[in-house]
Amino acid sequence: MYRFRILFFLIIAGNPVFSQKEMDVNQKNAKQAVLDFFDGFHKGDTAQIRKTIDENIVMHTVAKTKEGKIKTVKTDIEKFMEVIHNRPKDQKWLEKLLGFKVDADESIAQVWTPYEFYVNEQFSHCGINVFQLFNDGTTWKIMAIADTRKKEGCK
Fold it and tell me: pTM, whole model, 2 decimals?
């Protein structure tokens, strides 16, 4: 009976550890896809960005209207890419990611990143990014991005 309890404990205790290792690998790879996205964003390299996103990506900003109502604003990915591609060469954009919360399994992930955005080292705004990703069997692809933006109460 004693051996049975030890064996039972090892099986039960070992199972979550195994699952957690799998989660860690998926979390790491999903996070890396987001980091690769931002590497391309900071460089103005739309080809690199395209490697990190799904062709059907959806982008939204949660914004407050002049009347104070909260709504979503959809961003067209091609317009987003055009703005990045046409950014003046002397203009530096930095989206400083302040942390990561990553939930993932083998096929889907969510990455939550608070951020501060700077243009030529001048603070512009802050907010939260939320990325939804999927694993296509080869790599993690971003399928949705939502963000918030505010100028006050950031620090």
Answer: 0.82
* CB neighbourhood size of 113 (10 A): 22
Q: What is the DSSP letter of 66?
A: T
> Among candidates 149, 146, 101, which has minimal Cα distance to 123?
149
Per-residue CA distances from 140 to 32, 35, 65, 145 (Å) = 9, 12, 34, 14
Q: Is 54 exposed, middle or buried (0-12, 13-18, 19+ CB in 10 A)?
A: middle
pLDDT (tens digit, 9 = 90+) per residue, 99-148?
999 999 999 999 999 999 999 999 999 999 999 999 999 999 999 999 99
DSSP states of 85-141: HTS-TT--EEEEE---EEEE-SSEEEEEEEEEEEETTEEEEEEEEEEEEEE-SSSEE
The predicted-structure confidence for 48-103, as pLDDT tens digits, reads as follows: 999 999 999 999 999 988 899 999 999 999 999 999 999 998 999 999 999 999 99
User: Residue 131's CB: how many other CB atoms inside 10 A?
Assistant: 25
